[in-house]
Amino acid sequence: MQDPRHTFRLYGHVKAENTFRSALDTGRMHHAWLITGPSGIGKATLSFHLARILLKGEKTDSPAGRRITAGTHGDLLEISRSLDEKKGRLRQEITASDVRVVQSFLHHTATEGGWRVVIVDGAEFLNRFAANALLKILEEPPLNSILFLTTSSPGKLLPTIRSRCRTLALSPLNDQDMHDLLPDLSADLIRRAKGSPGRALFLSQDRDGHIAGFVDGILSGRRINTESMVLIDQIAREVDGFALFCDLLGEGWAEQARVAAQRGDLPISNMFANRCIALDTLRRQTEGFNLDKAQAIRQAVQLAV
């Protein structure tokens, strides 16, 4: 999949696009839109698609279209978690200094006489100071300005931010759209991705299935042996091995919690739910403080004991 700025065809989110176009055509345009949905479903891609509509850049070979693609359009600003160059990974937060750029941007006259558009990609990562700064913008939005906030976890946003946005809740892509977008991926992988193209590509990194197989063993209660210890070190060395391991294990425990709850076994359901919480905490601490991933995987395995 391409960078959202360079993705020109929209898959699966026609209903959301039509809702937005209707607001624009009827003169009932809201100043802020909260675009929600699972990770990897195409929230940022939709944001740029809607920005192209506002900025008359739908034709990719038009002057406005080319500037949007190149990141040089004077009326479009995107903020997200920046890269920590020392650690070589994304920072854990969007900070107040990032939002101050938005404040400055919106208080200048539009360079092309139309809308000014801001995309906040990953609004759940706004820290407290950044969230409060953004809230002030939402409370007193400048004329002819539109903000798109994307998030996979709307519950992590301030209620006052959510209340000042119109929500576009994206649904998973259907199988046909997934196959059209990702023709080289297997039907099984697409099924496991549950309508999320980004997740499908993430899962495809486990090319020989050894991470999924290891996780399946944990979920079925298999005990760690010497061979498992070697595999743990291998997973930890892979670029996204730790993240994929945590994602698959958390998903498995969440499913076990759901199944137990459906059959009325609340103690077992709570046990698996607590494992999910503990795993999430372990993952955030490991990635946030750049801790030993192999050790973290071993700790995760111990949660199942």
Structure description:
- By secondary structure, the chain is an alpha/beta fold.
- It folds into two domains: 4-171, Rossmann fold (3-Layer(aba) Sandwich), CATH 3.40.50.300; 205-302.
- Helix content is 52%, strand content 10%.
- The chain has helices spanning 14-25, 43-54, 63-70, 96-106, 128-139, 159-163, 175-181, 187-193, 197-203, 210-219, 226-237, 241-262, 266-288, 293-302; strands at residues 32-36, 76-79, 83-84, 89-90, 116-121, 145-151, 166-169.
- The chain has a five-stranded parallel beta sheet with strand order 2-5-6-1-7, sandwiched between helices.
- Helix 5 (128-139) links the parallel strand 5 and strand 6 (145-151).
- It is globular, with a radius of gyration of 21 Å.
- The relative contact order is 0.11.
Summary of the model, kept short:
The protein is an alpha/beta fold and 305 residues long. It contains 14 helices and 7 strands. Helix 5 (128-139) links the parallel strand 5 (116-121) and strand 6 (145-151).
How is this fold's topology laid out?
Layout: H1 14-25, E1 32-36, H2 43-54, H3 63-70, E2 76-79, E3 83-84, E4 89-90, H4 96-106, E5 116-121, H5 128-139, E6 145-151, H6 159-163, E7 166-169, H7 175-181, H8 187-193, H9 197-203, H10 210-219, H11 226-237, H12 241-262, H13 266-288, H14 293-302
Parallel strand pairs: 1-6, 1-7, 2-5, 5-6
Antiparallel strand pairs: 3-4
